Amino acid sequence: MTDLRSLMQLTLIRVRVMLREPEIIFWVFAFPILLAVGIGLAFADPTPEQAEVAVVDGPDAPAQTLALEARDDLRVRILTEGEAVDALRRGEVAAVVRSRGAADNATSSVEIQVDPARAEGRTARILVDQALQEGAGAPRPVTVSVREVEQRGQRYIDWLIPGIIGFNLMSTGLWGVGFYITQSRQNRQLKRLVATPMPRGHFLLAQILARFFFLIVEVPVLVLLAWWLFDVQLEGSVVALTVVVFLGAACFSGLGLLVCSRVRTTEAVSGLINVLVMPMVVLSGVFFSPSRFPDSVQPLVALLPLTALNDALRHVYNDGLPLYQAGTELAILAAWTVIPFVVALRIFRWQ
To answer: pTM for the whole thing?
Structure first.
């Protein structure tokens, strides 16, 4: 009976502590409700999802587009050959349709290009085949062939790997810096440090420099695994990739400092980090192209730090471009690095 009474008292103590922390109340009760409502509104449209298809521009493109648009589950756009291949690689379309001319006097030949690693590509291939056969008409049926993407640089996996690197830099920067400092504040370690002759700015700068140390192992391992397992190769220079990676790490370390500058509990900082991470995972082109979102939100998406980092990584990793051609993305990253760090220096609380 005494043990049960002790357990009840300990439980009540923990409940009272949680109720006295407004941050915990918000993240435990209010945030899940807001998240559920937001996601529910985003996916409440009963209209079936449409598969994006690119038709390569040519003499037969208008007729093919007309046949494909007759289906409600396909959305079609006419692109040049190069634009269509790039759209397939970036995940903007699920299939590419191109005419191969007349197979013989009675039939026409159409090729559907898909990436077999993507489930939506396999679905789009079936829908396109059905649409073309239904729209061809009896006098001139269509012979459909399928070509799977195999060339390095044109596969979805080639586009995905830089996004994974960017996501990793964001996650480790925010959690490695923000969570650690908040935990140190909660355990009173920062209060002891501030009593030493240590310059306060040096402590915050040291968090970013320590983050750089781990990059020496962190990113090369991802690059080597991508090359070994999936034959994904770096098309640009190692120096350019290094500059982008270190700038991205500095950016999210600075954001981590800003996030943890005032919070007192690990529960609160966990919620704040998740508020930053989750929207950028969806919007910033980690797993699929941000071009899928409405034009009205594109300027906002472009200004997100993870969007700029992923775009800069793909310019170097996939396209082999020099750094100056990623100048806009690097400028956005630099702004997201300097401004949060300066603000964190001003408002940082040591206890």
So the answer is: 0.73
